Amino acid sequence: MSGHVGNLSPKQEATLAEFKENVKDITRPHFDDHYFLRWLRARNFDLKKSEVMLRNNMKWREQNKVDTMLEWFEPPEVMLKYYTGGLFGQDKEGALIWIDPNGYIDIKGILMSMRKQEVILSKVYLLEKIYAMFEEKTKEQGRRVDQMVIIFDMEKFGLKHLWKPGVDVFTQIIAVFEDNYPETLKKTFVVNAPKIFPLAYSLLKPFLSEETHRKVTVCGSNYKEVLLQHIDADQLPAHWGGTCTDPDGNPRCPSLIIPGGQVPESYHRQNDLDDVSAFTQVSIGRGSTLKLEYVVDKPRCAIRWQFKTDGFDIGFGVLKKTADGPQKSAEMEEVVATQRVNSHMVPEDGMVQCKEAGTYVVRFDNTYSWARAKKLLYLIEVLQPQTFDLDMPKVDSSSSLASSPGDDVYKSF
């Protein structure tokens, strides 16, 4: 049995009923059997794992205000103009098609022009737009539309795309997708894969579930024939084997599929910290950590951070104390998992909403380095709920720059 509505075994039916009962405290009116089964399939109908996954998702959505994201967030202009990809048509079974000429992305230029957190938020915004489109297509077409086919065109992909901060962003986007939008991917086709592709894929594979990995097909030189087995020609740009072109005859259809290209220097702000007058500068000794405590006096406050290091990376995480007095890191609740970040290449920034009041610990970790101390510049702020609501990232709507294909990709659903 497939695990989809109308194709469940008796055991799967029973598991679905029990799952719905277990999570009824967080169930919302729009949660139907299709919704619940996505989480069950993602964890092979393991009740406990599926429940943990769904509860983590609900917590993530609350912390990041995802449910209202389409109201308060707009992707920065450079994202709309230069981050490759776009929706184009549907496959033979109705799944939406995302085509990404990934080899033409200038990820370094993008990260020099906007903050990493803005890139990730822009991708979450896009996924929320796509989910809204799923609902519209389902109503319009009288069939269930809730999955995507992704075509990655790796033409021009090279070593420059393996720049560490860029890879970090890709892996974080994948993690967000895997953890919070399960069973959205129907199939991925990789075309024009260069010799370096196995190395690139090896960096991403640890972040993919086994089921996602099974959905990836690397096509050979006959990729157009392969794509047409799954997609009708009138649903595919001519460049990838279909019959569609832009009004001017362009076979790549850049009016809907952002073609990428080098980000102009006029967008570059070096993503740097120009004014560091409010920042604190410290040196974290080799094999040492820096723990900074912040008292959050009410729920829904947010902790926001900006920092950079000089020459080398640093570990970063946010913890919550579970008792008064001194506590080891291992005894605290993990709020933001500690990981090494390349803040010497691209300044790091981010924010997390605190669901509960309490004492939170921002931790900079240099314990893995026994040879070097790290010079750190940081600014940590605790934002009150009203400030947090008003301080969500926006873009300047007064910009005089021309519209781009990305405006359609993100807004015209």
Automatic annotation (TrEMBL):
Residues 269-382 form the GOLD domain. SMART domains: CRAL_TRIO_N, SEC14. Pfam families: CRAL_TRIO (PF00650). Residues 75-248 form the CRAL-TRIO domain. Residues 393-413 are annotated as: Disordered. PROSITE patterns: CRAL_TRIO, GOLD. This is SEC14-like protein 2.
